[in-house]
Amino acid sequence: EVQLAESGGGLVQAGGSLRLSCASSGFIFDDYAMSWFRQAPGKEREGLLCITSSGVVTTYADSVKGRFTISIDNATNTMYLLMNSLKPEDTAVYYCAADPYSRSENRCRGKWGTYDYWGQGTQVTVSS
User: Fold this and answer.
1) Which residue of 23, 64, 68, 83 sits 20 to 30 Å from the alpha carbon of 126, by its own alpha carbon?
2) Mapping DSSP to helix (H, G, I), strand (E, B) and coil, where does residue 44 land?
């Protein structure tokens, strides 16, 4: 059974930090690029960052550049999102997703990805 489980969300003051985790099981982690998305109330889901199993990172959202860092631990099939300098506009439900990709190309597929697997999401609330 495929499982993606996010954790680490919560309430934090503006300027603070959180680290989200996405624990994966039930599929071959090396065959998937892992991504973080978020969805704020009343807004569309937004892709944030993606990382391949070899560590190549693509940042999709300009709003998180320099503040959010994505990483993976292939030994434990876990992806992380370190969020620094949090702002109230970062408040959202954060999701992780797995997209099959070509390891020979070694890059995330962005909007062309199929994102076969999704987690249930974890709430992040940033107070002003």
Assistant:
1) 23
2) coil
Position of tokens 């994102």? 115
The C-alpha angle 73, 24, 14, rounded to 5 degrees, equals 70
Q: Give residue 103's pLDDT.
A: 83
Position 105 confidence tier, pLDDT thresholds 50, 70, 90 = confident
How far apart (Å, rounded) are the C-alpha atoms in residues 27 and 57? 21
- Residue 94, phi then psi, degrees to nearest 5: -105, 135
**CB neighbour class for 108 (10 Å; exposed up to 12, middle 13-18, buried from 19):** buried
Torsion, Cα 26 28 29 32, to 10 degrees, reads -110
Mean pLDDT across 48-67 = 96
CB burial string 15-24: b at 16+ within 10 A, e below: eeebebbbbb
Q: Which residues pair with 83 in a beta bridge?
A: 18, 68
User: How is residue 23 written in tokens?
Assistant: 């624990």
CB-facing half-sphere around the CA of 51: CA atoms within 13 A: 19
